[in-house]
Each structure stands twice: as C-alpha cells, then as structure tokens.
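Can you give me the bound-state structure? Components:
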Amino acid sequence: MLRKWLATPYILWAIIFTIIPLAMILIYGVTIDDGGIRFSLENIMKAFDPIYFKALLRSIYYALISTIICLIIAYPLALILTEKRNAKVTVIFIFVLPMWMNFLLRTYAWLTILETNNGFLNTVLRFLHLPTIQIIGTPNAIILGMVYNFLPFMILPIYNVLSKIDPYVLEAAFDLGASKLTRFVKVILPLSIPGVISGITMVFMPAITTFVIPKLLGSGKINLIGNLIEQQFVQSYNWYFGASLSLVLMVIILISMGILNRVDPSREGGAL
Amino acid sequence: MIKSGLKKLYMGLVFIFLYAPIVTLIVFSFNDSKSRAKWEGFTLKWYANMFHDPVIVKSLYYTLIIALIAAIVATLIGTFAAIGIHYMKKWFRGIVMNITYLPVLNPDIVTGIGLMLLFILINLKLGFESLLLAHITFCIPYVIISVLPKLKQLTPNTFEAALDLGATPFQTIWKVIVPEISPGIVTGFLLSFTLSLDDFVISYFTTGNGVQTLSITIYTMTKRGIKPEINALSTILFAAILVLLILINRRPGKNNVLLD
Amino acid sequence: MKNSLIRLENISKSFDDELILNHISLDVKKNDFVTLLGPSGCGKTTTLRIIGGFETPDDGQVYFNDKVITQKPPYKRNINTVFQKYALFPHYNVFDNIAFGLKIKKMHHSDIKKKVDWALNLVNLKNFENRNIHQMSGGQQQRIAIARAIVNEPEVLLLDEPLGALDLKLRKDMQYELKELQRELGITFIYVTHDQEEALTMSSTVVVMNDGVIQQAGSPEMIYNEPTNAFVADFIGESNIISGVMRKDCFVELFNHGFVCVDKGFGINEAVDVVIRPEDVILLKPEKDKLTGKVTDCIFKGVHYETYVEAGGKEWMIHNTKSHIIGSDVSIDIAPENIHIMKKR
Amino acid sequence: MKKILLLVLSIALVFLVGCNKDSKEETVTLNVFNWGDYIGEETIAKFEEETGIKVNYEMFDSNEAMYTKLKSGAVDYDVLIPSDYMIEKLISEDMLLELDMNNIDNFKYVDDTFKGLAYDPDNKYSVAYMWGTLGILYNTEMVTEPVDSWNILWDEKYADSIIMKDSVRDSFVPALKLMGESINTMDEGKWEEALKMLQAQKAIVQGYAADEVRDKMIGEEAALSIMYSGEALLTMEENENLAYVVPKEGSNMWFDAMCIPKTAKNKAAAEQFINFMTRPDIAFENADYIGYSTPITEAKKMLDPEIQNDPAAYPSADILEQCEVFIDLGQKMTDFTLEKWNELKAY
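Here's the bound-state model for the whole set.
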C-alpha cells in the first residue's frame, strides 16, 4: 500500500545525503595517505594518544555534567509546564524563539554578561557590594554554555511525555494510597523515562561535539574533541585523522545510543 | 499559594537564564559603541545603516530563501517519511530511525565535509542548489521526530476508516492524516526554518558561487569584528518572529496550532 | 454458490510467522446478518479486515458477487466499516465526518446535505451536524460512525466490535437498533464480537471461530442447540460438558448411568463429549436408579435460580424456577433430545 | 489551501532563482573569495559598474577554511585574498596562476617595501592587499611600565590579565622571538623549547582568544594581549587607554594579498579586479573603510594624517626590519607545530 512507500523518497534521500557522505568520511577514517592511499588503522590508534583521548574524555565529562544539570533544571520545569494551560505557547518561547538569534551572537552575549571585570553581572554584584564571580575561561563557563544551549532540547521531550500521561493513571495512584512522593517515584518517573532518554540523547550528543563554546566561553584554554576534529579537518587538512577522531567519537555515541535503546527499546521518546 | 508562587519563580528564573543573552543583544543593538563590551549611549544608527552593506542585504535574502525552501521541502519529505515510518514493520522502523538520528548526532563539521565530498563526487558545483540540498538534509530528521509522536496519537484505524469511505490513499493522507498531525508538521517546519537560519558549519562547506547566508556572514567577520548592524538586524528578525508567533496564537476561534 | 454475496475461499493469513487464519472458507448471503464470534486472537477481526480490504490474504480468494476482489483496495469496494474505536476524524465536525465519503465521490453538495440528514435521522442524531466530535458521548460517537458508513449505501456493512465501549443498557439498546437498521436498509451486516449473547440476539448467522479456524457456522438456534464440538458448546451459552461413552445408538453412559438420547452413528463404546444446557437438567427428588447428587449452591438470578449440584464427581450448573435447599439430595434427569453428543476433540 | 499556495510559491521561487542565474550566465562572473567584512561597502558595486563584470563575493573566516574549500575543487574561485604563508603554501602546491603584470598596471603603486617578500619573492603570484604587524596591545591604565618587550607577557604581575591568540603560529611568535629565533624555524628542538615557555606562561594567561579579544580589551578585561596591528587600530578607536607596540625583539609582519588560483575561469577579469583594487582611489576607500594599513603609497597619502603618522598603523622602517613574514612550514612541520599546540592545551 501507498503508505509503506511514503518513506521511500526520504530513504533514498538519506542514503544519498546521509549514508554516502558518512561512508566517505569513514573511508577516510580507516585509510592514510603516505604517497598512496591505503587501508590503515594507524589514525584510529592515534586517536587514543593521550593528547586526543584526554580531550575526548574531558568532552564526555563536561557533556555528562551538562546533561545532568539540564535534567535537574528541565524536569521540574516540564512538570510545572504540564499544569499550565497555555503550556504550548510557553514551550515555543523556550524552544524555538531563542534560536532565532544567531548562536554565535548569543554566545558572545554571554561574554558581555559574565566577563570578570566589567561584565554586566559583576557590575551589578559590585554595585550591591556582593562578591563578584569569575567564570569566563573556566570549565564552569563551558558547562554553562552547554546547559544554556541544549536545555530546551531536554525540556521539550520530557514535557511531551509528561503531558501525555493519562490523568486517570495519576488519580489511580492516589486512589491506591500513594503519597505525592510515592506517586512521583513509582508512577510519573517511570512513565516519563522515554522523554528523559530522548532528552539525554539530544543534549549529551551535541554537547560532546561542540567547539564554539569552549573556544569563546572557555577562552580557548581547553581543547575539547570538537575543537580537535575541527582542527584536523580545517587547520591541518588532515581529513584522514579528523575522520578517525570522528569515527571514534561516533562509535562512542552509537554505544551510548545502544545503551539508551536498551532502557527504552521502543524509542517512544523519539519525540522532540 | 506559596507553592504556585514558587513554581512561577522557578519558571521565571529559567526564562531569565534563556533570555538573558538575547535581551543583552537587543539592548546592545542600541549601543553607540561598536563594541559589545562597553555601553556608550543610545543610538538608532545601526538600524538606519542596517541595509547599507550589500553583503548583509544579500545574505539576508539568501538566508530567508534557503530557510523557507529548505523548511518547506524538508517538511514535505519528512512528513511523508514519518507517515511511512509509522506504518513500517518494527525492525525496519528501527533501522530507519537510527539513520534519521545520525545527522542529529554527528558533529556538524563531519556532516558538512561529508556533504561537500558528495557534491564533488556527483560533480555538483557548490552554490545555491548544494546549500539547499544540505539544509534540507539536516532539517528532515527534525521534521520526522516532530511528526512521529502525533502519528502515535492518532485513533487506531484512522487510515483504514478513510480508505473504507472511498478515499484513495493519497486523499486519505491529504484530507485526514495531514490535518490531524498538523501540529507536529508545523513544529517540524518551524524547527527546520530555525535550524536552517542558525547553521554555519554545514553551510560554509556546501555553498559557493557567491551564495552566503547571514550565519556565514557573521562567522566570517573575523578581521574587523561583528558589525553592530548585525545586532540590529537580528533584533528586527527576532521581533518579527515574536510578533508572528503571537499573532498566530491569538487567532480567534482557533486553538493554537503550534507544538501540540 | 448462488445467493452468496461474499465468499471466502481457503483464506490463510499469518503475521510475523504466526498463523492467524488457517484455510478459512465462508459464504455470506445477501441481506444476512452474520456475526463472527470468538475469543480474542481467534482471527475474527483479521477475517473482517480481509473482507474490508485492509489486509491481503497470503493464500485464498475473496469473492464479491462472484467476482474476485482479493487484491482490490478498500476504497474500491462497496463495503463500509464501523471501527472498534470508531476512528472518527477529530478535525472534522459531525457533518463533515459523515459527508466524507460523499465528498470523495464528488457528489453535489445539496445531495450530500440530503443524505447526511437522512443518515443522521436514521441514527437518531438529528440537528447534531455542527457539533465537534469531542463534544459527543461514546454512544453518540458510535452512531456517527454508523451514519458515516451507511451514508455511502454500501452493500455490506462491516462492524468490528462496535458496542464494546458502551455500557450495558446502551449496548442492549444499540443491539436492537442495529438489527432494526439492518432490516430497514436491507443490506448485509458482518459483525464481529466476542459476546455470545450479542451474537445470538442479533444475527441470522453465527460463525464461531477459534485458533484461526471456523468451528461452526449456522443459525443461532442451531449453534446453541447443536454445537458441533465442546469449544462451541462452551463458548455459546453456559453448558455442562461431560465425558461419556456411547454404548449403542441412542444410548449414552454418563457417570455409570445410562441416558437415552437421539444421536446415532457413533461407534460402540466410543468416548464422546456430552453437552447439556443448564436449563435442560431436570431436578427430581432422589430416586434410586438415577444419577444422584447434593445441592452445593443455589443463587437467585431474577428469572431463574442457578443451582449447583455435585453429582458423579462433577459440578453441574442447573437453571430452573424452583429454589433448592443447600445440602439436600437431588436426582438428575435429562430429556433425550436435550442430550447433545459430540465427537471428542 | 494555504499549503498548496505555499507549495506553488516555493516552486516558483526555485524557478525564479534558477532562471535568474541562467540569465546572468551571459555576462562575465568573477568568484571572489575574501575574509568577511574586509572590503569597502560600495567597492564591489563600483567595480561591477565600471567593468560590467558580475562579482560573486564569498567569504571565509580563516586561511585554513579558505584552503579546505579551495582544495576541494568544489568551487571555481577567480580571486583569493589569503595571507602570506597561505599564499606560499598555494604556490608550493602549484595552485596559483602567474599574474600578467601588464594587465595589472596599478601594481606600480604598491610600495617597494612590500614587493619581493619571502612568500612570493618575484611578485609573480600576488599583489598585496593589506598589511600589518603582530604586536602587543595593552591598557596604559593597567600597565604603567613601558612596554617594549615580549617579556612582559611572562610577568606574573599581570597574571590572568594576558590574552594570547588562539592560533598556533601567532602565539609561538613571542616565545621564538624571545629565544632570538626565526619565527619560521624548522628546528623541532626550538619549537619544543618555545612550548616549554608557553606552558610556563599558561598559568598566568587569561585565555587563548580569537576575535573576542578585541571586546575583552575594550571592556578592560585584560591588560595585555597579542594582536594584529589592523585589529589593534580598530580596538584603540573604542578605548583611548589602549596602545599598541611592536616589541623590540622583532615580530611578524603579515600580508593579505590578492592572487588567482589555477581553477580560475576568468583570468583576465580576475586581473582586472586586482588592478581595480590596487588603484589608489579604490585602495584608499577600502583602507578607509577597513581601517587596516594599505600597501599602496598613494592611497596612504589620501588618509587622515593622524592615521598616516600613527606608528601602530605605519611603523617606521627600522621596526619593520626586525619583522619577519610567515613562511609555510610544510605539511610535516605544520602538523608538528599543531601537535605542540595541542600539548599546550591538553592541560
């Protein structure tokens, strides 16, 4: 029937514009060019060299912290949103509207706010005779940037799942003698897992690969894996090694996706 | 009472966090200094000068055209794809969904260079077409993941019911399925448009022939810093979409259609 | 062959290597009210979907007026369906839902208006055309779904457990109304349900299905009174199913007591299943030669008492109009024509 | 209905854009690839008007990004305006066309100081576009002592107030120059030694910044930073406490220059463009808008005398003598320096 063929244009599109380019990158990842192009895992091994591997681990670490913070901020917010009548409008204001300002401009604006000496925040703090903060150039600034940028991607899926929980289920939980806390732990939380998983995916993965945030907010003092991949592709024209780095990264991403899929095999949370 | 106050406070704080940089940017678009580091008094000159730089004007034009076409095409392909995926066998759906997530999860630079390699391979000169193809490519997954949940919410047998009443599969999709999942489609369209607007890395590697988007123009202003006119232009764009969203959602008699 | 409107021939269908329908053949006559009855998973809905054109059988053919329609898509079949959860289109109002099929046929809008009015009238929902679907109750949605289907004047109306979501009172009313409707429209209904009472009340033909196989097809009386096997007997109405042995034609032995019956043609000393309806058991004062037992329970059920008797190591269910004291001894008697002998499965 | 309308509209749009391009094919088009916001706002329009040649103007954010795009062969650029070491790299990889100076009459206006430079010794491939030095931009309120040496970037008094550049070669300049080395040294040991210095310095460095350094200096977030003279000139306009100096140990002198890649489809038009940009009145307009230093003597003379006499913009000859131009180190050495850079950033 027709509906089974509806995805065909997309599948063709995906094969041409997603799979083939990726395959080409992968080929670069497992070859080297020393006079002639040949198969080699040399670059893959090099990706585990401490300089690069540490950056990778650090990226994962920061991305992980950012994801956890996003989750902590987003979950209560999503819960509050489900109680709001005009939640959908609010969600647009959270999710779509901020992106209408160019990402680079928004990140620059954080500098204006957070700079140590004459940043907006510290000026206010100083005016109130409060201690000022120094955050620009520290890992905290990188995490702040990640949380800022990816928080909406955590709020939306959790909200979507929460808003679809059948209110009768919640009443049933009360009816069966659950306290508010028990109800949350035993009913709401398990039911919202798909949204949480989806949120984690949408925050953790892009957070690993970001390179503008560490450059600007981290004052370029720390390299994350995104910076190194960009550097290999653009600065040293070493696509072979750049591809190897992304290959290693991709494997890690796929493994984490596999783990997440185990928790939520239906990928119901594929909902943005 | 205290509880609802706390909730409002919490929401307020998150909103402050999300909007602080945007408000800053808007405020500084009225700054007399070229720098975003120092406030030197109020001015409207950046708004007046905004359209003097032909490069900015041209990139604004391309940005909007590319975003519009990319969003429309991505929404079309993505919506049909989502319907197809929804009715697929489970194992196949799993594979297709994993492919769908690939561009979302890949570093932009890998996607960008990969696409550039592809365009070279198929001998397509970089320019408007290649840029458009690239944008459609990274937009489709977002349409699919916006539309799929709506399909899951359809009452069972909706598709069959329409066929049963004599609608051809095409009529069914157009007259029944599409209207019912329209909130997801609108979300997907809006997301596509927004992402297309915001992208730099993929655009840079897939464009040519003088076709530049606003993002490229902004990112490449490395020699002299970002022109303050850009802040003014961004403010206007932001205000425009804000007004548009408010208008759409205030339409009398209609429940808001966005992001159901 | 003649007179049959829809004919299924040797239909098989499996999903993911699970056989759902196993070589089914069925004739549906014109103007018949056919009910497909069976427990969930028996294949009745799949059969309906094959008739509707939503599934293609792996094997076998579907005939409509003696023409093969196996591969014909649903929108080219003059058959309409009322779905289990109605599948109304929430973005259309009542009128547009009902008019959907007519608009697809590009009918003139004044005709559409007439026909929708007619259909709404038929389901007692006059003046509801501008309502939104979500403003309607379950029963009303049900009626809209029916109106939406019949407005297209199908030759066959398929109904997939249409009353499942309604409360008992409403269900009874709708059963009656549907039957009326069928008579009035003079078209064929094929009705899927797992409720045997519903099946018996409404249909002119009941088709009992289990495990992808048709167990028995026939009039409600025949199905009830002459079930071909223990499954049918058990599924249709309440019955006592007892293992017995055929001693000779018209004589069966149950719990070492001989009973005269009317069935012939079984082998001498063949083990058989014997079905006895609760209302066919006659309770007597204890008599020496008869099968005797003790009353274990007696429940008032309105029109009758439901009495349980322990006799011959089995609990019998008996419906009669007298109450019995729990613990008292009774003898059991059964008229020969009420003893239904079936081959052991 | 609306959707159908939208669809029709978009298809029409595609056609429109497509047709537009076809009609333009008849006139000569020139693909120019330059840094963003690095040309006078009306310059291109003027060129198009004078010559009838249509310019497709494209921008890049770094030499390396430019190279990646060019090397891919996906676009046939006609004119590039990269920096010195990149031009040398392009020359060594045989990616540039030799210019016919007969077509670039205005080459005569280029100051002799800027001819025959190391990256293009015979002026066969490039014509200088802008030039400048690498130096220290500092805040005279925050730094009271005289600044004349790279040494000050290692002074712990200014801990957390020093900004280096997020660029390998620029950030190694101070270290190499303090060691008395050439900034183009091919001696890996020297790079290792310089890395040690930078690693020691990292503790007191506020950051390795890219473009945001200008705002940081204007906002007085840091006292000292290394910066190109052109950027420094723009920055000083916004904060009068800022001053720029080229340290006495010498530094890097940089050039952005126009050249024609082998992929060029319109060499004649490209040369016409280069000639146009070198014409004193245009060069003046351009320099006046960009605020960087022009290599065209006649154009310089048209500038505000204050700028002409600003040593930051046009340093004296003896300072320039101390300065070196970057030379491409070759792939192997480039990779090596990048590795050193990553080592620096690893902790």
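A couple of observations. The CA atoms of residues 172 and 326 of chain D lie 12 Å apart. The radius of gyration of chain D is 22 Å.
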